[in-house]
Amino acid sequence: MRIAIDTDRYRDLCDGKRDVVERLETAEAIFVPFIVLGELRAGFAAGTKGQANERVLHRFLAQPGVDVLHTTEATTRSYAALYRQLRTQGTPIRPTTCGSPRSCWSTISPCTHATSSSRHYRSCS
Fold it and tell me: Which of 8, 43, 94, 116 allows an S-S link to 105, with CB 3.0 to 4.6 Å?
């Protein structure tokens, strides 16, 4: 199974949420969209544990099978079509805001479950 994670799933991994950890442990590949990296790093920059969180993120991204997804022209067109569809059906994409500690990472301790070099996230310390 190949999985793309969002900011909330990365946070769940860091919190050691069993279902997320287990799913990521069994994934063939884990993709982190570039915008998720931007959201995480924006939160790190606004918080008090930014350097520690950045080190953990760097170790996570360096693990085998973890890759960053970058945008293409086709991606931006797909996004626009999805945006239009969701808006038309009355469920638009909300803008990203930093209104809570969960989204900002302002005071959250560094992630300890995303650092295992063996991709056994739950066993890392």
Answer: 43
